[in-house]
User: Fold these one by one.
Assistant:
Number 1:
Amino acid sequence: MKLRKGPKNYRNRYGKGKIMKTNSQPGGRRSFHLRENAQLYLIMLPVLLHIFIFSYIPMYGIIIAFQDYFPGKPFFSFTDTNWVGFKHFIEFFNGPYFGRLMRNTFSLSFYFLVFGFWVPILFAVLLNELKNGIFKKYVQTASYLPHFISNVVVAGMVLSFINTDGIINTIVKMFGGTPVAINTEAGYFPAIYTITSIWKSFGWSSILYLAAMSSVDPHLYEAAKMDGANRFKQILHISLPSIRPTILFLLIFAIGSLFSANSEFILLIYNPMVYETADVIGTYLYRDGLLGGQFSLGTAVGLFISVINFALLYFANTLSRKYSDYALW
């Protein structure tokens, strides 16, 4: 019996004209996909709820950036809400610290990007080449530990190291040098921040690269050896290409956060004498927005920085999509 075929359905074998839905139909594909991945969606559900409750619901508070808000006043009220438009944005742009804050925030993040982004990549590649399993596990564990140390503890260690009688000046005196109060010299702060941030994060950041390289087929390395490729060429032509998507994705995120320095750590190690190179947007928001009670101004500054970071993220993603095969969207 001849069957009448349609683009997205077919008649039953008895020819009675009953339409049978198949998985090729859009609705069928969606329901089949949901059934097959139901467990994965259930696993993701708590995380999605957490993000929705703590990240999306509070976003309505952005409106106080356009108000003169005081704690206790309603966000929406025809009588008590004082709408001021872009007053707080203009106040921040015309403020005496605008240039310094933007420069310091960008420069500290840029230093970390330039000097720190490649460190976990290099560490992961070298660690992947180790053949001694016990030593490899020990190095991995030791490199991960700084990530789990509290910023307060790390800041205390750093301040004790850079004091006049700290270990750094002790070594300087051993070689006949003159001790320097590093913690009060503004010129040293970018180096202190960058080195400490790299030390604290490179081991943990290397996990993604190690995971990507662990999925490489070992036969590729064996074939390369048979063709006469040494260890360096194997890294260059097999290991690095295997982690290229991961590198590009993390680079996009890093560029998208160039105006988001680690304010929590900076607050713990800076002082008024190094504001010239250490004061960033996050520390300014803490002092004037939170401690100073200028909540509308703080919200306006935070919204402004979020817009800039999103623009940088979009720009980096566009370039990645244009010049490579990888992009976030």
Note: The two ends are 48 Å apart (CA to CA).
Number 2:
Amino acid sequence: MSIPGQIRLLLLGSSAVYGGGYLAHAEEEIRDFLGSIRSLLFVPYALSGRDAYAERVVEHFAELGFACSSIHRAVDPGGAVDTAEAIYLGGGNTFRLLKTLHELGLVERIRRRVLAGMPYMGVSAGGNVACPTIRTTNDMPIVQPPTFDAMALFPYQLNQHYVEPPSDSTHMGETRDERLLQYLEDNERPVIALREGAMLRVEQGVIHLKGLVGARIFRRGVSPYDIQPPATISL
């Protein structure tokens, strides 16, 4: 599946890894991804406590030397998207995030800007809504978005915070692998399951797997398999 060459994405499997601070494992990659850009628009809609969430993120990016503003404080959210240098969608509940984006008319608005070259960063839920749908999220559907269709900026599905089933577990419920294989029974689009600390960077139509750990690939008719960074992904 081809990706338009002007699309620039940085999709993180988690905002932190065990023992590290917020986005600490991705700081170097974020700086390189943003390059000369010095400001970005933050989207906190995946959490209900938007003020506290935004304060935390704005403060963090200020420490990195970036001016960051939160879209939830904008008088005109759509206008804020139209004038942003770059956009960052934070993690939380994917269903809440997508519902709010639809309610505010921002799905297509963000999509148009990214298709025109605006850099897009997404963590966890923020990465999920860059996919064609949110059908492979781990989140509980605490709210009902009008559709599971998302922005389709990234051609495959993501599963964030991926963990493989422990070999000695006595749990009798479905494992993450089993749930993703069930998805493939009714859907053909492959899934990239990102472990915490993994990230995907899309530049000039190429998907680069980066980060501290790897990913597991789920494709219909193929046994799930692991890939390790650095690597390029073409499914």
Note: The mean pLDDT is 96.
Number 3:
Amino acid sequence: MRIGVAIDAACDVPQDFLERNDIAVMPIAVKVDSERFKDDRDPAEIQRFRDRKLGSRSHSAETEASSVEDVQSLFIDRLVKEYDCVVCLTIMATRSPIHDNVIKASFAILKNYRPVREAAGRSGPFLMRVVDTRNIFAGAGPAIAETVRMIQAGKSPAEVRERAAQVADCSYGYMLPRDLNYLRSRARSKGDRSVSFLSSMLGTALDIKPILRAHRGETGPVGKIRGFEQGALALFEYAAKRVQAGLMVPSLSLSYGGDLDEMRDLPGYSRLVRTCEDAGVQILESPMGITGMVNVGEGAMTLGLASEDHVAEF
């Protein structure tokens, strides 16, 4: 059985990883004032967004996940012809409609695929398995990496989905923004009042950076650090300790809203890389997608890993 993978564009994984594993991407449309972008993990489009230097204007951007019709077209026009089963992984359903859209699209896809497959010379039924990673950005990386590993190991669709859901339940995604005022403005534009005006002003004045965590469909602050570099160091040191303690998946994800060399120059990065190398853990580094930069701000960093339950102290 040929099993494929499709992901939501808000899942931050490297382009070469997508190409190497022939992973389909369900795009997100982004509009900033009169500028329009297609977030489909294409490095050229990500660079075009950064080159436009939209800065603070992006906090009011409008984003639109792939619709039910878009998902149907992707599957009927391409995926049902190439695969016998496709595992779809999306960012947390509590933050995006894409998971529900895929579920709704699956009914029409599974109803109408047979003539398309027959015309393409493929026999047998077509299956879909949908997984909510319960995370966002780099936090979705471990579940995606494990899905690919299970497929390569020859596991059945049921085994792949069960394992992906298990990893999703144990995935931790961390976000370190550079600009608390931007984060507040973005939250307010979406009706989220969780970042108050006073806290954002104090945070800016004192250069305080919050560390935000996404886990099991919920997001919220778990710490605060003075200075972005110190925040990055704290995150890298935390990740190194989790790697040494043992991860559920031998893969750790990083994404950065800028040039990756800037992230690699941050304190603690080199030690994390050495720790991962010693433990046989693969690091998946990628530029943050347009959707991530719109929501967390350019220059932000996200980190994802899968681990047993624990309390992170920052």
Note: The two ends are 45 Å apart (CA to CA).
Number 4:
Amino acid sequence: MPHLIQLNQEPNALVVEWSDGQSSRFPHFWLRDHATDPDSYDERTAQRELFTAAVAPDIQPESAELAEDGTSLLVCWPGTVEPSCYTTEFLHAFAAPEANAAQRRPQPWNADTLTMEAIRLDYSDVLCDDSGLQSLLETIDQHGFALLANCPRAVPAVERLANKIGYVRETIFGGAWDFEANEAMADSAFSPKEVRPHTDGTYSHDAPGVQMLLCLDYEAKGGDSIMADGLEIVRRLQMETPDAYRTLTQVHVPGQYRGDGVHLLARRPVLRLGLEGEVVQVSFNNYDRAPFRLPDAEMAEFYEAIRAFDSLANDPQLQWRHLLAPGEMLIFNNWRVLHGRGEFQGRRRMSGCYLNREDFESRLRMLRG
């Protein structure tokens, strides 16, 4: 990382020069808002103590200088006893507007580009230490899912791993599940019929971010697991049917769950966009789509758009298929990857649970350091 070599003052900002020849401009108010003196910032909790609304819009520093070794900027602000220290790491991270919003961009995959070696890990390796757990989370972050082999064939194996990442999310289905085909339940997941690729929780305002599915027992024919990368579907839509892509980012589609004593309902686009226009969540479940009505022309555009989307999700060239053996577990990003299952006959016993998206992200940040 470059170090600081020069400081220049402007009427409303401080400008620092870096050893790599670059320069960065930091407005006075922004620096004051991020002051690190004890009256402004609680280092123990990483919380801001400053009452930002009380800061004068035209605030000026009383003094500002670079540390002799170029590793920090020291600024004294009016009304504070101690100077605030802005490290090179902090200043470099926020050297440009929205620099903190930059994220690693995973590459989309399809049936030809994804290998088993890229997503397969061993349960004991993942559980043994933090590096193993990070390997799992990095795999999910990059490819959207991972396959764990040699898992104990019991519900506690799911809970143990979930608690290493965050905690088991409670839903209308409980915490960790242990289930077989049961057509008395009001959900297609409990049917032995084919389940086409979809995401879970379209009826929830905050859909589960991660899902875990462990095969406990299998005495059946069929029932292969299906995964389809939502990012690859997005890439194809943008390239082949941009109008469909645009429609799916704009129309708020209702999802619902009716049965078992509840009626859940939520709305959001199939493709939810982030601040930079990137897709941050894929939310598609044709089974759980609730009735809704648009003007005729808009409704026709919507149907054309989901026809394009669902056709890609069911294209074998875009799918990863694998028959889970007892002791194998799928862990996947429910905001990116669509999952499904082939029709089966016989006994197929599964366990699993949900986790929150923010807990997955938090654990990965902590492991990355």
Note: The mean pLDDT is 94.
